[in-house]
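Listing S7. Sequence submitted for prediction.
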Amino acid sequence: MGMIKRKRCCNCKRLFIPDHRNRDRQKYCNTPECQKVSKASSQKKWLRKPENKNYFKGSENTHRVREWRKRNPGYWKRKSSKSQNALQDPLNGQVTDIKENTNNFAGIALQDFLTVQPAVFIGLISKFIGSSLQDDIARTILLMQESGQDILFYQPQAEGGDHDIKNSHFTRAGP
């Protein structure tokens, strides 16, 4: 294995190790000041070329920019941090096939409340299980759904039945 060849920065004159993918062309070190000088230098070099002299001037280039802006609306607008999603897949709501008369429920149904405030629901589960990992939350939601279906679709058995709290899906250990 050969020695790593160091180069001298064209701006600050310090020795630096160039990036291995660009070692033959890199002339500036990675300090912010030297990177600004590098950018200014490359822009000057680009503008010195004859084909780039009037790149930003004239009606032809104005038309080119207008067309690009039409194809890329909102490109220059900042994205708000609120619109960015967390590094997790969204949890999708589940469709239920209940065909019974539910007019005897007082107030709003639980499902309606949960679809309005999914962040509250996810936060509650996260606090309840002591984990904010998506897999743990999804596993818990599945167990809670199974337990809820056991409660909603409870059908008493002729001899005592087998649906009690000790046998629900939610109290089961593991996935």
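Caption to Listing S7: primary sequence and predicted structure tokens for the chain studied. The first strand starts at residue 7 and ends at 8. The beta strands are 7-8, 15-16.
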